[in-house]
Specification:
The protein folds into three domains: about 5-145, Valyl/Leucyl/Isoleucyl-tRNA synthetase, editing domain (Isoleucyl-tRNA Synthetase, domain 2), CATH 3.90.740; about 255-295 and about 385-435, no CATH class; about 305-380, no CATH class. The protein is built from twelve helices and 15 strands. The chain has helices at about 55, 85-90, 135-145, 180-195, 210-220, 260-265, 275-285, 320-335, 350-355, 385-395, 405-410, 425-435; strands at about 5, 20-25, 30-35, 45-50, 80-85, 110-115, 125-130, 255, 290-295, 295, 305-310, 315, 370, 375-380, 385. A hairpin with a 2-residue loop joins strand 13 and strand 14 (about 375-380). It is elongated, with a radius of gyration of 29 Å. The termini are far apart. The relative contact order is 0.09. Residues about 420-425 and about 430-443 have low confidence and may be disordered.
């Protein structure tokens, strides 16, 4: 067999390609090896793709063309199917890194893995996997011990090392929409100077996005097989109307999966009206239960009451205002803080006036620095999901466990549940009550 062998992977987000660490195929999908010419480099190549999608990329009439008659530039390109196999036969095969700017350090990489989400509805039946920028990607990579490459920072810019001096320049926005008009004009002038001087474009007349320049780079390197304009839906911020990036962030979770069987058991004791809500929508939700991600990134709200040292070796979890006041007193004594913002708080006084002597919401709680074993501890920056507040309401409204503890522990009171307008919200709210109780009030 002459020519190199390639996997044909399809993506609508070329900016994620530097972060590629795996390719996913469907276990029971039929794949074929096709011999043809690369339409850009005009060299003989052998490409692997789903059998069902061959007709989308190789017109049937071209099957009769002779390879020896092909000339560079011909629109009709000959091809032949060399062999056929299942996706399971491809699992574990290694491939060369597409854009080798850097390598992952947290796992294996550049292998074909099995993905249950792979379909033959569009593309090539082979999915490009960038674990840092997609839920399915992250999940399947973790299952297979595949590492990640997070090469975009929280500003939406490539890291400095993502540059080749010609097509990519490092520390540039991966989405054109993030640029102001002035920034875009400056970037265009920079691109024009570099690309024309390098002989890549004779006369650049408009700004080229990161996606467009990555496509050009792959084309020059003989790694591009097809390019086209493809319109598809993409999430945007409702405030700014700017495109949103999926991004890996450290989060705190409640391990609800540890109580999955108990939740399912209790759900069957509930007299649902209509019954289909409990056995269908809600029951299905419980069957596919995930751990609850508590972390939310907001300016104001209920803070996650966890303080951690910068080296992650020391940590304090606060369960009451009394504990927090004592910990701050310790921090003041050790020089980590100068004053205690809870100084006026009187332990044991459950009055609203006493609790109004301080404000524990973010951003005020962020100024509190604690101390443990000679190290300063800073609060985890995120907030608690507001749905946790809603789910905790039946207990928190009675200031449990600081008040009414015996009343609740001995089940001498009927607690309300969260009632919300609308079927979906009602079900979600009810679930949160099941998950959150019992809770500990920060007060």
């Amino acid at each position: 067999m002459s020519g190199d062998v390639y996997f044909l992977a399809w993506t609508t987000t070329p900016w994620t390609l530097p972060s590629n660490t795996a390719l996913a195929v469907g276990k029971n999908i039929d794949y074929v090896l096709v011999k043809t010419f690369n339409p850009f480099s005009h060299t003989i190549v052998n490409v692997i793709l789903a059998k069902e999608l061959v007709g989308k990329h190789f017109p049937e009439k071209n099957k009769e063309l002779k390879f020896e008659d092909y000339k560079a530039g011909d629109k009709a390109i000959p091809f032949e199917i060399v062999s056929e196999f299942k996706g399971s036969d491809l699992a574990g095969i290694s491939y060369e890194q597409l854009l080798p700017f850097t390598q992952p350090t947290d796992g294996d990489a550049f292998k074909v893995i099995i993905g249950d989400f792979v379909t033959t509805e569009d593309g090539t039946g082979i999915v490009h996997i960038a674990p840092s920028f997609g839920a399915d990607d992250f999940r399947v990579a973790k299952q297979n011990g595949i590492g990640s490459l997070t090469l975009v920072d929280k500003r939406g810019k490539f890291l400095p090392e993502i540059k080749d001096g010609v097509f990519l320049y490092g520390e540039e926005y991966v989405k054109e929409a993030y640029l102001t008009d002035a920034e875009k004009e400056a970037e265009f002038k920079n691109q024009k100077t570099i690309l024309e001087a390098a002989g890549k474009i004779k006369e650049l007349k408009a700004y080229l996005s990161v996606d467009e320049r990555i496509v050009l780079k792959l084309q020059e390197e003989g790694k591009l097989f097809k390019k086209e304009t493809y319109e598809h839906s993409y999430p945007h911020c409702w405030r700014t109307d700017k495109p949103v990036l999926y991004y890996p962030l450290d989060s705190w979770f409640i391990k609800t999966t540890a109580y999955k069987e108990r939740l399912i058991e209790l759900n069957k004791t509930i007299n649902w009206k209509p019954e289909s809500t409990g056995t269908g929508r809600f029951g299905n939700w419980l069957e596919n239960l995930n751990d609850w991600n508590l972390s939310r990134s907001r300016f104001w709200g209920i803070p996650i009451p966890i303080w951690t040292s910068e080296d992650k070796s020391e940590q304090i979890i606060i369960g009451s205002a009394e504990q927090l006041k004592n910990e701050i007193d310790n921090a003041v004594a050790k020089g980590a803080m100068t004053t205690n913002p809870l100084a006026a708080f009187k332990v044991g006084d459950m009055s609203a006036d006493n609790y109004n002597t301080f404000d524990l919401h973010k951003p005020y709680a962020d100024s509190i620095v604690l101390e443990k074993n000679g190290k300063k501890l800073f609060r985890e920056p995120d907030l608690i999901d507001v749905w946790f507040d809603s789910g905790a309401m039946p207990y928190a409204q009675l200031h449990y466990p600081f008040e009414n503890k015996e009343l609740i522990d001995q089940k001498n009171i009927i607690l309300p549940i969260l009632l919300l307008k609308g079927l979906i919200k009602h079900v979600d709210g009810f679930l949160l009550c099941m998950q959150s109780q019992p809770c500990v009030s920060i007060r």
